[in-house]
Amino acid sequence: MTDLYHPGVPSGQPIWSPSAPLLKLKGLTYVHQDTVLLHEIDLQLARHGITLLLGPNGAGKSLLMRLAHGLIAPTSGDVIWHTQPDMPPLLQAMVFQHPVMLRRTALANLTYALAARRVPWRRRRALAMETLERFGLISLAQRQARVLSGGEQQRLALARAWVLKPEVLFLDEPTSALDPASMRAVEEAVHAFHAEGTRIVMSSHDLNQARRLADDVVLLCGGRLVEHTPAERFFQGPRTPEARAFIRGELIW
Amino acid sequence: MPENDNAFQAALSLILSLDPVLLGIVTLSLQVSLSAVLVGALIGLPLGAALALWHFPGRGLAVTLLNAFMGLPPVVAGLMIYLLLSRAGPLGSLGLLFTPTAMIIAQTLLVLPIIAALTRDHIGALWEEYREQLHSLRIGRVRAMPGLLWDARFALMTVILAGFGRASAEVGAVLIVGGNIDGVTRVMTTAIALETSKGNLALALGLGLVLLGLVALVNGTAYVIGERARRRLG
């Protein structure tokens, strides 16, 4: 395992390989009270890498992740995870924009997640402490999670995802309410997850953050998928006028 | 009012000398009300949590009934249990009427709706907050319930105290199903009513003071729990 604060360089394997998708979204549509919030999204995500979902507010980024994560059911269309036959479903975790802190100590927030994964209780405490240590939260172990600062709460939410050892991690604008130091901690955590082989899907408003993290970029606009390209290509020469406008910081809808 | 002064002094000396009659009545009151609250909590906490977590046909009706029963007049609760336990009633053969057990049943009927309805409110709000995270952890409603009850523990303690306040302060139900039999089913509230009408103000006032102290203690405890929870849990 890599130290979170000195994350290893992401492995050099091909990171955007459309030939072997891990996740396929087919005609994914979500309608709420006669409003089409997501319109026939077709998307394939490669087995490895960090995908950044970009787009203005209300583009459907959070919704897309919630549908893929299985928190809500689509109105129509399919979410298909490609796993080997006879294998259990992929272990997934999600970190929300406003982390949900259980009314317990920081430590108990982690042991609860371990209990959810049916880790024997004898091992929970040690695993949780080890993870708190890794995320620099060990001194806060016995503090009530809900009185921690926003940055600490988000780190605790990441630690809670970490103990699950997820194969796929969704992050919904995890840094949108954080100061620069906390933001860097979150980005380092994302790198650490990536180094462990976790597939990452993350939404953000921050183009610089996307430049720093993304292997590929999905641009959503008004509930439609505008563009899905490798990050390098996206930032050098986006194909669509919407993407060009988005990069220039113009308002698009 | 010299006579009342004397009654007050007599009441205080009854309390301070731990008068056996007074002590017996206080003990029985506590036994009955605490048992009723215990049974009410054992049923009401999971029932309230279940009503918050599951949506089923008739749920609205169940919640409305529960809320209506929060205001159930104690005499009516007493009458219902009386009809159930009287010799001619469906459970008459158990011979429970005019026993402390009957009083516990009647008070449970009063306490249960309060505990269940307020638990539903608290657990419902908490579930609303936790739902996505627990869903993400793949924890279903059944597995979520113990954790939700635990995380709402401070709020639920004050709920249980509210139930205890209602049980210990009511007269009607215990009077009807208990019969206020000296040494057997005489509790603080019924004894106060009887002794006042008999003119034995010293004992009535003594019991009244104890009851008042108890209610103050319960409310004080509820306040302290609430404050501590707010400070600690944020």
Note down, in words, how this protein is organized.
Chain A has 253 residues and is α/β, with parallel strands linked by helices. In chain A, 34% of the residues lie in helices and 25% in strands. Chain A has a single domain (21-248), classed as 3-Layer(aba) Sandwich (Rossmann fold). Chain A has helices at 61-69, 106-116, 121-134, 150-163, 180-195, 207-213, 231-236, 241-248; strands at residues 21-32, 35-46, 50-54, 76-81, 92-95, 168-172, 199-203, 216-221, 224-230. In chain A, helix 2 crosses helix 3 (121-134), helix 3 (121-134) packs across helix 4 (150-163) and helix 4 packs parallel to helix 5 (180-195). Mean pLDDT of chain A is 88; it is low at 1-18. Chain B is mainly α. Chain B has a single domain (11-233), classed as MetI-like fold, CATH 1.10.3720.10. Chain B is flat, with a radius of gyration of 21 Å. Chain B starts with a helix and ends with a helix. At the A-B interface, strand 5 and helix 2 of A face helix 5 and helix 6 of B.
Characteristic key phrases:
heterodimer, A: 253 residues, alpha/beta, Rossmann fold, six-stranded mixed sheet, three-stranded antiparallel sheet, 25% strand, globular, disordered N terminus, B: 234 residues, mainly alpha, MetI-like fold, 10 helices, flat
SSE arrangement:
The complex is a heterodimer of chains A (253) and B (234).
Chain A: E1 21-32, E2 35-46, E3 50-54, H1 61-69, E4 76-81, E5 92-95, H2 106-116, H3 121-134, H4 150-163, E6 168-172, H5 180-195, E7 199-203, H6 207-213, E8 216-221, E9 224-230, H7 231-236, H8 241-248
Parallel strand pairs in A: 3-7, 3-8, 5-6, 6-7
Antiparallel strand pairs in A: 1-2, 1-4, 8-9
Chain B: H1 2-16, H2 20-53, H3 59-70, H4 74-85, H5 100-136, H6 141-151, H7 153-169, H8 172-178, H9 188-198, H10 201-233
Helix pairs in contact in B: 1-10, 2-5, 2-6, 2-7, 3-5, 4-5, 4-8, 5-6, 5-7, 5-8, 7-10, 9-10
